[in-house]
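Summary for the steering committee. One of the milestones for this cycle was to obtain a three-dimensional model of the protein with manganese (II) ion bound, which we needed before selecting residues for the alanine scan. The sequence and ligand used are listed below.
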Amino acid sequence: MRLCRFNNDRFGLVSRDTVLDVTPAMSGLQARRYPFPEHDVLIESLPALRGAIETVAKTAPARALKDVSLLSPVANPGKVIAAPVNYLKHLAEAHADPEIHHQNEIHEIQRVGLFLKATSSVAGPGAPLVIRHPDRRTDHEIELAAVIGRRADRVTKQDALSHVAGYCIGFDITVRGPEERSLRKSADGYTVLGPWLVTADEIPNPSGLELHLAVNGETRQKANTKDLVIDVPSLIEWASSYYTLMPGDVILTGTPEGVGPIAPGDVLDATIETIGSMRVQVAKA
Ligand code: MN
């Protein structure tokens, strides 16, 4: 299933170039009272809602994909976890680029560990990406994003993928500079998730997916998730050894080589095999 959120928090089932509005399928979600859960209750409930989604879809109004504004497929991630330098060629380019390397020591991922991005940085592809510090270099990073579907506490890599709800494209937008990653990558809108969630049953093996990112039609990043230094199951094992992963938690798996600056007016076109494509407009200042 390809599940999206669109317009004013509508819930959609994507079928080719249309979106079926299956919002009524969410009516089964339990009403929640304060204190609200710290995870995403829709993602948590997806296995139980599958039947309702299919039933509602049979008579759901259809909208053309091009006519809707896509939101992040995860509304309330409790954590956005990110893997730095998880492709060897990106590690090499970071070492070679003085603007990246001389302001931060870049080490291999095994030494750096994982970092967290503010959940308030999450946005969908329908919103323009607003550069917060136009005086500084801001880079694009395309990444495969895995969305956790059920509680994972100290799971093994053999068991890890059974905890994944699905996958989407992620942008880990980065301001270059000397500060901690968690600050430079947490500006509003700097975690773009989209265009929709492809449920994990359609991607039994997240290794071997082609990624492609073009800026203004020119290819910048082209790689394959088979080249991840630490693959998705091992990232889940590693992350869950520190903190319990909850439904809706997002793992950005790292960006390949080819990162580069973006500027207001640019158009980013991203594709990941089996997931789909999304276009994000960098807002004019
Ligand atoms: Mn990244």
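Key point for the committee: The longest strand covers residues 164-172.
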